From TrEMBL:
<feature type="binding site" description="via carbamate group">
    <location>
        <position position="100"/>
    </location>
    <ligand>
        <name>Zn(2+) 2</name>
    </ligand>
</feature>
<feature type="binding site">
    <location>
        <position position="16"/>
    </location>
    <ligand>
        <name>Zn(2+) 1</name>
    </ligand>
</feature>
<feature type="binding site">
    <location>
        <position position="175"/>
    </location>
    <ligand>
        <name>Zn(2+) 2</name>
    </ligand>
</feature>
<comment type="similarity">
    <text>Belongs to the metallo-dependent hydrolases superfamily. DHOase family. Class II DHOase subfamily.</text>
</comment>
<dbReference type="InterPro" id="IPR032466">
    <property type="entry name" value="Metal_Hydrolase"/>
</dbReference>
<comment type="subunit">
    <text>Homodimer.</text>
</comment>
<feature type="binding site">
    <location>
        <begin position="16"/>
        <end position="18"/>
    </location>
    <ligand>
        <name>substrate</name>
    </ligand>
</feature>
<feature type="modified residue" description="N6-carboxylysine">
    <location>
        <position position="100"/>
    </location>
</feature>
<dbReference type="InterPro" id="IPR004721">
    <property type="entry name" value="DHOdimr"/>
</dbReference>
<feature type="binding site">
    <location>
        <position position="220"/>
    </location>
    <ligand>
        <name>substrate</name>
    </ligand>
</feature>
<comment type="function">
    <text>Catalyzes the reversible cyclization of carbamoyl aspartate to dihydroorotate.</text>
</comment>
<keyword id="KW-0862">Zinc</keyword>
<dbReference type="Pfam" id="PF01979">
    <property type="entry name" value="Amidohydro_1"/>
</dbReference>
<feature type="binding site">
    <location>
        <position position="42"/>
    </location>
    <ligand>
        <name>substrate</name>
    </ligand>
</feature>
<keyword id="KW-0665">Pyrimidine biosynthesis</keyword>
<feature type="active site">
    <location>
        <position position="248"/>
    </location>
</feature>
<dbReference type="GO" id="GO:0044205">
    <property type="term" value="P:'de novo' UMP biosynthetic process"/>
</dbReference>
């Protein structure tokens, strides 16, 4: 029986660190196990300019524990006003790694996102030219499309046509939740990839809705039926480098989650590596955990893997605190619903 596992230090290719008191509390949680992370720009107001990204980067660095080597990889939030030259300069200087496309209204803090995709065509062409990846929240926002269908419809109606209009654009389909997205993501190696979250490998829509409504499992895109979870699990454990970890750890205070109109987002930064080790072991794929968490992301982004390692150790069930305290209020940690035996020990 394997009871120790040493991996190249993982990265998180999609995380929300927020700002202010929340940032102070959650940045150390991500920095503990991860070497780098793609930092989502959906603050209020969003991070749309290079100057805003530079200021946000310094606030993140200021929230890290002393001696931390964690490296935030910044993103810009694309709007219909984004200036292709400002974006290209931010990328060329190394300040910004990618740009994030939110369909307006698709998710938390996406009001400034894109409504008319033609308007961002020049920016996307510039990104293709300079090799800057586009990360996308892939859901349509049409009121007449069922929420469980919004990801699959986005691929057909928006993403595939957009990629045909902008050949050469590197795209990361963020936090995929469907078999359709997993199939599409592998259709153009090196140009197209997908992040998969920890929680979408573990929960399906029954976990949210059966036997009572569980707001801490509500996120966007919403978890789908079990067949889709199984497709994601197969993708994540397949060893195909087009799939890599993006936790989408998205903290909201318990007040904001446990409400008549609760926010979307699952906070999983603290226990993600324990959860994933359990999931990959159950799938007899522990040997593929390193690719998914530490090798395939940097490969797609054209970066070297981290030079150091982490070690996970298996033992008696580990107890994580049910929540973390933040200056903004308590934030509940993702509960996988099963015992966790693996813990990051060094
Ligand atoms: N995933 C979520 O449910 N929420 C994210 C936004 C996002 O990634 O779509 C958030 O910022 O809270
Ligand atoms: Zn999203
Ligand atoms: Zn997110």
């Amino acid at each position: 029986m394997t009871d120790r596992l040493t991996l190249t230090r993982p990265d998180d290719w999609h995380v929300h660190l927020r700002d202010g008191d929340m940032l102070a509390a959650v940045a150390p949680e991500t920095a503990r196990d991860f070497g780098r992370a793609i930092i989502m720009p959906n603050l209020v107001p969003p991070v749309v300019t290079a100057a805003q990204a530079a200021a946000y980067l310094s606030r993140i660095l200021g929230a890290l524990p002393a001696g931390s080597n964690f490296q935030p990889l910044m993103t810009l939030y694309l709007t219909e006003q984004t200036d292709p030259e400002d974006l290209a300069a931010a990328h060329a200087s190394g300040l910004v790694t990618a740009a994030k496309l939110y369909p307006a209204g698709a998710t938390t803090n996406s009001a400034s996102g894109v409504t008319d995709f033609d308007k961002v065509q020049p920016v996307l062409e510039k990104m293709a030219e300079i090799g800057m990846p586009m990360c996308v929240h892939g859901e349509v926002t049409d009121a007449d499309i069922d929420i469980f269908d919004r990801e699959a419809v986005f691929i057909d109606r928006v993403l595939d046509p957009l990629r045909r209009r902008v050949p050469g654009l590197k795209v990361v389909m963020e936090h995929i939740t469907t078999a359709e997205a997993a199939a599409y993501a592998k259709s153009d190696p090196g140009q197209l990839a997908a992040t998969i979250t920890t929680h979408h490998l573990i929960i399906n829509r029954n976990h949210i809705l059966a036997g009572g409504i569980r707001p801490h499992y509500y996120c966007l895109p919403v978890a789908k039926r079990e067949t889709h979870r199984l497709a994601l699990l197969e993708a994540a454990t397949s060893g195909n480098p087009c799939y890599f970890l993006g936790t989408d750890s998205a903290p909201h205070t318990d007040d904001a989650k446990q409400s008549a109109c609760g926010c979307a987002g699952v906070f999983s930064a603290t226990n993600t590596m324990s959860c994933l080790a359990e999931v990959f072991e159950a799938a007899a794929a522990l040997d593929r955990l390193e690719g998914f968490t530490a090798l395939f992301g940097p490969q797609f982004y054209g970066l070297a893997p981290n030079a150091d390692t982490i070690t996970l150790t298996k033992g008696d069930p580990v107890q994580f605190a049910t929540h973390i305290d933040t200056g903004a209020g308590p934030v509940t940690l993702f509960n996988p619903g099963f015992d966790l035996h693996w813990t990051v020990t060094s």
